[in-house]
Amino acid sequence: MTKPKMIRTAFDRESDDEVILTGRPSPRPRDAATLILVRRDQSAPRVLMGKRSGRHDFMPDKYVFPGGRVDPQDSRVFSVSELTAETDRRLRFQSRRKPRAFALTAIRETFEETGLLIGQTVQTPPRAPDGWQPLYEMNVAPCLKNLHFIGRAITPPYRPKRFDARFFMAEAEQVLIDDRPPLDGAELHDLQWVTLTEAKALDLPSVTRFMLDEIDQRLTGAPPPGPPFLRWTRGGHSQDRLV
Known about the structure:
243 residues; alpha+beta; Nucleoside Triphosphate Pyrophosphohydrolase; two-stranded antiparallel ribbon; 21% helix
């Protein structure tokens, strides 16, 4: 891994309309995972984004990718394929959780927030872990091999809620079971496939905007040396590359 490089783009204090904590202990970051689906069926690549409910106390009314908190049972879910060895290795960095749990969380949260099915139709085990019953009832099992780990970001300590989020990217044509449209729900609404230019014009959290730039680089230029790792250090905001 390269030596940390100081930046001011990922979690700049002035860039998000968040409450800044003062005079209280910083909350412990919760593991989370996000999935960025990319479609290439038009002249320009498009990504799936939705607007968070205004009732949320974390990033209300912001446009984001589907995702959410890791549940303990996610690591135990049956899958048709596993992560590549390189992805597994990078996800293990400074983490006690099984790497597959992050990818499975991204798939489950995408289904819960959009209704989209990621995986294959197979005969699933008779007993489903908590939260996976709807997919098991449809005999849908996730596939992990085509999920690419493209970034990790830990919310700074001055935020009222903190997450240690892993970002995955996948080609929609490779991972989706069918071409059903995404459905608005309680967590995300105004779900839409947008170009990167259209996405950057939306009201975004700063980390989402940063990841859009990362996607842009992967789609239009040479792939970066490894996923960025954005976090807070004693010297301020920092960025590593997990190589």
